[in-house]
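job 3f2a | input accepted
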Amino acid sequence: MFQKSFVSIVFYPDKIQVLKLDSKRKRVVKFSQFEVPPGVIMKYRVRDQVALSKIISQVWRKMGLHDKFVGVVVPEFSTYTKTLSLPALATDEIDEAIQWQLQEFLPTAPNNVISDWKIVKRTAESIDVLVVAILRDILFGYVDAVGHAGLYPLVVETPSLSLERITGGDTGGKMILYVSSHETLLILAEGEKIVASSVVNTNKVEDTLNTATRMIEHYRHVKVEHVHIGGVALTQDLIQYLNFNLGIPVQLISYSIAGIANGQAQDYLSAISMQLTDPAEPESERTVNLLPPGWATHYKHKLRDIRYWTLTLLASVVVWAAFLSTVIVFMLIGMQSDQLQREHAASGEEDYGSVIVEVENINKLTSKTLAITSRIVPPQVVINKIAATKPPGVTISLYDLNMESGRVTIAGVAATRGDLIALKNALEQENDFDDIEVPISSLVNEANLDFQINLNYVPVTAVKKVAPKLNI
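job 3f2a | predicted structure (472 res):
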């Protein structure tokens, strides 16, 4: 699972919108939109990636944003959306079936697009899958521009996905109209299934009405019960005009959130909706994420590096805390010894019995302190030992260490089954590891094996934990 905190960026041919909610997603913290000069984005393609990256960097500075993770909404015109009905296949078979069907409705070869899907309905006999695809070169134009601005894209989606989410709740048919400054987006949906979408490159109400009528007529198997309309420059006359001519109840997309006026929120519906989703990896069957695989891998490595740094920092804090505790104990011992000597000199009485008891208590306290510090094993020691046994064909992406129990879990990818077995044998040769467990499921494939290995770190498990007691 990707991290949940990020900033929304919505791209239009002539502007970009940026919006961020607070951690509880109850208030808009920052929002703004900036013009994109002519020639940077033409016909929904990024023509000047360097210029777009500079604009994004300038936006971040002007808005005072320090976030590095973003969610991107790309223009609808450049995407292909379709809901497919498939037999009740196993999850691992769905992707292969979708790749076959993509060849039938895409105007180009499947290897020229980036696609993702999610299951929107499942029954005992069939499943409905929402598939979204975008031309590879168009997608990389936007994603790489974001990356060159020093940001990390977590999720990429289309306006139709964002608008369907923010108008969710209907299980029947619905039509969504979103009016922007130069175009109108029309979406025909049934529940979570997006049946069709269209972009009208004009603000003429007649053209929008004609397109909506043709879509409803063409997909007559979808019974449209409501029409949701949102965007800029909306009037009650427009709503009544569409209501009368379509013969279907038309209602304004009503979404209120603190930190932004309702009228302004209409202009930022896609950006707000993007903030309301929990970004998941493209492999997830629950969401659609058009993030290219290379960026997903890059993000995982970045997150892994952050975790390693955090783990090392925590280990350093523990070691320094133990060291400072020892220093403080010895200082207290010295202070107590000096106090005893002063009291002895002042009283002139030598109570050797009480002195011996105090010295014994001090020695016990010192022994316990040294025993505690000697049992602390920094996590990087265990990580380095495991890494030293790793064959070249094995990549370890997760270390889960419980330094209290000595239980260690590692996970990653092995190029071949032999590499995974070689890793297990190498760990068994180490005297510091025992009780090594490799699940049978990790050995099913011949190549590219996702594995998880559980083992004990003996120097920790061999130590009998004794609860410290306070001697009074």
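job 3f2a | The first strand starts at residue 7 and ends at 11.
job 3f2a | closed
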